[in-house]
Amino acid sequence: MRAMWKGSVSFGLVSIPIQLYAATENKNVSLRQVHEADGGRIQYKRFCTIDGAEVPYAEIAKGYELPDGEMVVITDTEMADLPLPTQRTIDVLEFVPLESIDPIQYDRTYYLEPQKNAVKPYIVLRDALHKSSQVAIAKVAVRQRESMAVLRVHADVLVMTTMLWPDEVREPDFPFLRDDPPQIRPQELTMAGSLIDSLAEPVFEAEKYHDHYREALEEMIEAKVAGEETTKPAAVTAKADVVDLMAALQASVDAAKKSRGAKSSSEESDEDGEPPAKKKPAARKRAPKSA
């Protein structure tokens, strides 16, 4: 695991330097989108809907769209200047019983590792929290947003689970909740209770359950590899990319001229004796990009 965040746990007047690690990982089999005919990878490019130019990451900002379609552009510098007191601090606010928190509010879970000079206060907080049979409610800023969080002990490690804000949990509003409930016979309720009792276990053991879909997908991939049912996509050269780009630009130029009722580029070449490449508007589009 790699530390994804460094900060401290603020517990009263005590500050405990820690490192944050993602406690979970996605085990889904990673599949790419490819062309079925030859196995070539499907690529997506970031382009501006106004000038049609491809936009590098360095020129991408954030935007908030107003109801009338106007856009408020917010730069990374402006985002960094926003006041955020919990940016590098897990600020403990109170302690509550774990069962008082509805799991629907849970978001992501992280492990907290003490830095070398903070092992003792870390263990003091861990053991005191475990002994109290309660969990700590805190505020923290992770991934450019401030969240509520729960601190608890798991496998002798402090674990932090970020929570959704109350207004981020949707209220269930379904028609059947407003209708008169159907009549339930006592025998039906008793039968449902008997079914629950027959499937009841004293504790939850996650290890006895398996992702059968993932296992079947992995077996299918292994069988295809063993049977040499693989496709090696042909190498795409830089020259081919340039040819395709030029063809697309030329097609765009011709389409634009046709929509204005002008002659096609080939016809202009016959009349003027000049190749259309010299008269392409594509060269003018590159000027704003370098500005």
Automatic annotation (TrEMBL):
<keyword id="KW-0238">DNA-binding</keyword>
<dbReference type="InterPro" id="IPR009187">
    <property type="entry name" value="Prok_Ku"/>
</dbReference>
<dbReference type="InterPro" id="IPR016194">
    <property type="entry name" value="SPOC-like_C_dom_sf"/>
</dbReference>
<protein>
    <recommendedName>
        <fullName>Non-homologous end joining protein Ku</fullName>
    </recommendedName>
</protein>
<dbReference type="GO" id="GO:0006303">
    <property type="term" value="P:double-strand break repair via nonhomologous end joining"/>
</dbReference>
<dbReference type="Pfam" id="PF02735">
    <property type="entry name" value="Ku"/>
</dbReference>
<keyword id="KW-0233">DNA recombination</keyword>
<keyword id="KW-0227">DNA damage</keyword>
<dbReference type="GO" id="GO:0003690">
    <property type="term" value="F:double-stranded DNA binding"/>
</dbReference>
<feature type="domain" description="Ku">
    <location>
        <begin position="52"/>
        <end position="180"/>
    </location>
</feature>
<feature type="region of interest" description="Disordered">
    <location>
        <begin position="254"/>
        <end position="291"/>
    </location>
</feature>
<comment type="similarity">
    <text>Belongs to the prokaryotic Ku family.</text>
</comment>
<dbReference type="GO" id="GO:0006310">
    <property type="term" value="P:DNA recombination"/>
</dbReference>
<keyword id="KW-0234">DNA repair</keyword>
<comment type="subunit">
    <text>Homodimer. Interacts with LigD.</text>
</comment>
<comment type="function">
    <text>With LigD forms a non-homologous end joining (NHEJ) DNA repair enzyme, which repairs dsDNA breaks with reduced fidelity. Binds linear dsDNA with 5'- and 3'- overhangs but not closed circular dsDNA nor ssDNA. Recruits and stimulates the ligase activity of LigD.</text>
</comment>
<feature type="compositionally biased region" description="Basic residues">
    <location>
        <begin position="278"/>
        <end position="291"/>
    </location>
</feature>
<dbReference type="InterPro" id="IPR006164">
    <property type="entry name" value="DNA_bd_Ku70/Ku80"/>
</dbReference>
